[in-house]
Design a protein that fits this description.
With 103 residues, the chain is mainly α. It has one domain. The chain has four helices and no strands.
Length: 103
């Protein structure tokens, strides 16, 4: 169950990052409220996952899902450019997450 909590926490991190962008500097109410709810959920589930998982593993997976997920959301939904360098960076982050999980 801690891995389920961790993965959901990572996806909530992506949601709050996208909502923060959509809030336009906290000037839009609905995205700001979504962001606050997603932050609370993300941190809460991360805390639950850390009851059983090592700190380094949990934190790296959580931030990795957030970083790669926010990158992908930016490309798919916000029209951000996909360059070979950005793709390689995302692949390296995922590679580090997999290595951390296997170690």
């Amino acid at each position: 169950m801690p891995w389920v909590f961790l993965i959901i926490a990572g996806f909530l991190e992506v949601i709050w990052a996208v909502a923060m962008k959509a809030s336009q500097g906290f000037t839009r109410c609905t995205p700001t409220l979504i962001m606050i709810g997603a932050i609370i959920g993300s941190f809460g589930l991360l805390a639950l996952a850390m009851r059983s998982l090592p700190l380094g593993t949990a934190y790296m997976i959580w931030t990795g899902i957030g970083a790669v997920g926010a990158f992908m959301a930016g490309v798919w939904f916000l029209g951000e450019t996909l360059t070979i360098q950005r793709a390689i960076a995302a692949i390296l982050i995922v590679s580090g997450m997999v290595t951390m999980k296997l170690s």
